[in-house]
Amino acid sequence: MPAIVEIRDLQKTYDSGFTALKSIDLDIREGEILALLGPNGAGKTTLISAICGIVRQTAGHVTVGGHDTIAQYRGARRLIGLVPQEINLEPFEKVMNTVRFSRGLFGRPRDDAHIEKVLRQLSLWDKRDAKVIELSGGMKRRVLIAKALSHEPRVLFLDEPTAGVDVELRRDMWETVRKLQADGVTIILTTHYIEEAEAIADRIGIIAQGEILLVEKKAELMRRLGAKQMVIELQHPTERIPEQLAGYDLTLGKDGGSLVYTYDTQGERTGITKLLSDISAAGLQLRDVQTRQSSLEDIFTDIVRKDS
Predict the structure, then answer these.
(1) Strand partners, 211
(2) What is the dihedral of CA 142, 195, 52, 154, to 10 degrees?
């Protein structure tokens, strides 16, 4: 799959001396959903702002659809839709006019059929004559997306698009993002809700302290770094792990009522069969056994902690 956004050695240092981005290299593939994860201050918003031309990079270059974002700014920016974190809308303007005006800002001819399509896609058509001030927070975020899509961009940046949105509406937004991808839009998503990235992203990028730590297909990342845990509940609590079991990666659960075994899902052998046999030989009686797989949040937290 070809790259629609190419980033090479992108750097940003502010006048204060703070370096927000350190030699970023990244290819964003056409038609994918890339989730960019990172703690507060990691550089996510600065990276998006540099690609969109809101922040001027100190070094490096970015192309969008083959257009350099500095030398060919208008050509590059015309291909980009941006949904910022902040809700900044004219409160007394009607939804239809707000979205139509955004299309005009990019020099696109009036196309009410396209505006209607976008509003219907975002469940805003019934609100087209409502003033922005009359809308809920979730609906205002939909208007921001409609504005970003009004000029028919090929790349859509969503910077914390579901911040402050309830769980039900958040899931509706996920479905909207999937539909946009089906229409051929490339989507770059930053989010604090890691389950959001786990639910809809094709690839995961992790950024911390202005550096990209990894970019990988979600499924491969979870398979490569995901550990599995087996919780072995005991018939009778134990005060310590028997010496016979010292060779296993075991921890004692709460109140000594269980043993927690962590094992590598990629290993040829998990060691579970021998472990259960050795537990029995150590005089411990099993009551129940449960397993759990590492979530994307577990993996993300571990990677960022190691980098800090």
Answers:
(1) 208
(2) -70
Give the ranges where the chain is alpha helix by DSSP (H): 44-52, 73-77, 95-105, 112-121, 137-149, 167-182, 194-200, 218-225, 272-281, 296-307
Signed CA dihedral, 245, 247, 249, 255: sign only = positive
Please tell me which residue, 256 or 271, carries the higher pLDDT value: 256
pTM here? Answer: 0.76
Long-range pairs for 135-142 at CB < 8 Å and ≥24 separation? 135/95, 137/87, 137/164, 137/165, 138/165, 138/166, 138/169, 140/87, 140/89, 141/83, 141/87, 141/165, 141/173, 142/173, 142/176
Pairing of the two strands 59-64 and 203-208: unpaired
Examine domains 3-222 and 227-293 and report if their fold is the same: no
Top CATH class of 3-222 equals alpha beta
pLDDT tens digit sequence for 133-190: 999 888 898 899 999 999 999 999 998 877 766 777 778 778 888 988 998 999 999 8
Domain extent listing, the chain = 3-222, 227-293
- What is the identity of the amino acid at 71? A
pLDDT in tens, 98-120: 999 999 999 899 999 999 999 99
- CATH number for the domain running over 227-293: 3.30.70.980
Indicate the burial class of 290 (C-beta count within 10 angstroms; 0-12, 13-18, 19 or more): exposed
Res. 48: pLDDT tops 70? yes
Distance of alpha carbon 222 from its chain centroid, rounded? 14
Q: Listing from the earlier edge strand, what are the strands of the sheet with 33-37? A: 80-83, 155-159, 186-190, 33-37, 203-208, 211-217
CB 33 within 8 A of CB 202: yes
What residues pair up with 62 in beta bridges, in sequence order?
A: 7
